[in-house]
Structure prediction request, 194 residues.
Amino acid sequence: MSPRTPKQFEEIREEKKDLITQVALELFANEGFHTTSISKIAKKAKISKGLMYNYFESKEGLLKEIIFNGIQDFMQFFDPNHDGVITNEELLHFIAQFLKTIKDNVVYWRLFFSLMVQVPVLKLFEGELWAMFDPFFKMLHSYFESEGYEDPQAEVYFFQSTMDGVGMTYASDPENYPIAAVEKKLISMYSKKN
Prediction:
């Protein structure tokens, strides 16, 4: 048997890292951040506790990686052509993709929304989180302003609150939430009326 190549080592490393983040995501979402220990994550992932620290410096670092990777995944649907300007078509596409992402990743979003109301945990990454969202909010403000909304800032907050509310409610009860009907209503609300 020949020795592993650097590429094979990197693939193994990425597989282990993915395994750890998936196990941690599930435990954090279902059992809570504070009650989930590194030992518990390692045991469920079937790796040593010491090996965990080869991938993540701390439980907080692991949580940050999970949260920021999830945000980056859904933010790719906002301003997909990266021109810094949101069109109506792009806004509607974002709404549809955001809801699809929530349906496809309900455990992540259950964790995300639960963390948003846990002030001590939120403080671990609050500054970085708002820095990630800042361009999103600025583009939304410009969009609502260009569309002639009376109070673009209030509309940004309304849009954000609406999307958060839909996401949080769906994540807490995906079997009963009428997400298709809610998506249709949101698309109708934000479609340009000619």
Remarks:
- The radius of gyration is 19 Å.
